[in-house]
Amino acid sequence: MVTLPPDYRPSEDEDFMNPRQVEYFRRKLIRWQDDLLREANGTLLSLSEGGIMEADITDRASVETDRALELRTRDRARKLISKIDQALQRIETGAYGYCEDTGEPIGLRRLEARPIATLSIEAQERHERMERVHRDD
User: Fold this and answer.
1) Which pTM was predicted?
2) Coil, strand, or helix at residue 98?
3) Mind listing the pLDDT tens digit for each residue in 64-114?
4) Dist CA 89 CA 107 (whole Å)
5) Domains of the chain as residue ranges with CATH
6) Tens of pLDDT, residues 33-60
7) Rounded Cα distance, 10 and 21, in Å
8) Could you give the C-alpha distances from 109 to 22, 61, 80, 81, 105, in angstroms and in order?
9) Is 107 exposed, middle or buried (0-12, 13-18, 19+ CB in 10 A)?
10) CA atoms within 13 A on the CB side of 67
């Protein structure tokens, strides 16, 4: 088990994806996943609190809109949790932090901003350009 000082932040001065960096991102992913699961459980509780009792049609529509938003948010969280699981798998296999397309390091700043990233910025931009080209066909 790798121990991290409380104020540890990955640095460009270190070897990329050294054990401390890997442990840092593993913990970051697990914290994010725990937060999402906690929020999802709260959403489940609020959705299970019975039917819509508002007599006023405007109030009823407002409650329906809120519930639809909660369900969309919950679906987004479910997808994020799945991506976090995949990132944790990549940590286990030693592939985390490296671009799926090129095998090059994704970069600490990108991983810090988006710990579930699977592509380097260059590969992501190339991928998005290709999507636009094909979408415009």
Assistant:
1) 0.79
2) strand
3) 787 788 888 888 889 999 999 999 999 999 999 999 999 999 999 999 999
4) 19
5) 17-96 (1.20.120.910), 98-137 (no CATH)
6) 999 998 877 766 666 665 556 677 777 7
7) 6
8) 14, 43, 20, 21, 11
9) middle
10) 15
